[in-house]
Amino acid sequence: MKSKIIIEWHKWYATMRISWSNELAYKINFCLLVLGPTIVFFFVKYNLWSSIFSATGLPLIQGYDLTAMLQYQALVMLVALAGQSYNSMNLSQDIRMGRISAYLIYPFQFWQFHTASFLSFQVIQVAVTMVTLLVLYLTGILEGLTGLHLVQGLAYTSLVSFFWFATAFAQGLVSFWLEESWAIRVMFNIMTGFLSGAMFPLEIYPAWFVGILKWTPFPYVTYVPVKIMTGTYVGNQLIPAGVVVMWILIAYFIAAILWRRGLRLHTAAGM
């Protein structure tokens, strides 16, 4: 039993090391990965919301002043870095190009390979998030936030990352039926951006609409972790965590169905 666990550990670790090598192979690309989000925030969102408040002349927009709105948008960026960076593009290519056939005979299954790749990528993303967090702290954007709330929010976001992976994995498996699955990913990302609070705080939407959204996974992947980080989330934090776990299981169940049915159609095209 112990030897089997050790063998499995070596498989996962070797796959993660390969993924790390691929991600860090291009130094300039990695530097842009680290610096890009902060640069985009200050050149786009900082100027955008400063202009909106200046043009409207309003001191508050749905309870947010300029400082609070910039802080909210900065935390949205941290949540996106730590929890929403995975996409299923490589998975779709494996299916479309016929590379999936190799995984069917390897001792390391298809889902294990992509899960290990996801975990290795998350390690890099956590490092990028920490660098971005430090920059935001030094610029005063995160002034007033406590370390405890930030840690709680980032811990919750780590759970969100598994939801993002599970849904992206299911979307990628649609490539069994479609030549390109990028349209599904784009539509899902756009919808998530508007409905999760990534574009605007949910307070901007009508109360009845927010009530409907609570029955979906969207508020729990951006709005809730941001509120936890700011210390303004009201209620037991285990409840949204349980909701996210439920949606992870639903996404896993859907992915399992797509995988089984997709294999029946698989003809090893491209091999």
Characterization of the model:
The protein has helices spanning 2-24, 27-56, 66-83, 89-96, 100-105, 110-138, 147-173, 182-195, 207-213, 223-230, 238-265. It is mainly α and 271 residues long. The chain has one domain (2-265). The longest helix has 30 residues, at 27-56. It is globular, with a radius of gyration of 20 Å. The mean pLDDT is 84.
The coarse silhouette is: globular
In total, how many beta strands?
A: 0
- How many domains, as an integer? 1
Helix share, percent: over 70%
Rg (C-alpha, Å): 20 Å
Q: Supply the helix-strand structural class.
A: mainly alpha
Helix-strand pattern: HHHHHHHHHHH
Low-confidence segments, ≥5 residues, pLDDT <50? Answer: none
Mean pLDDT: 84
Assembly annotation: single chain
N-to-C span:
36 Å
Proportion of strand residues: under 5%
Helices and strands in order:
Elements: H1 2-24, H2 27-56, H3 66-83, H4 89-96, H5 100-105, H6 110-138, H7 147-173, H8 182-195, H9 207-213, H10 223-230, H11 238-265
Distinctive features:
globular, mainly alpha, 271 residues
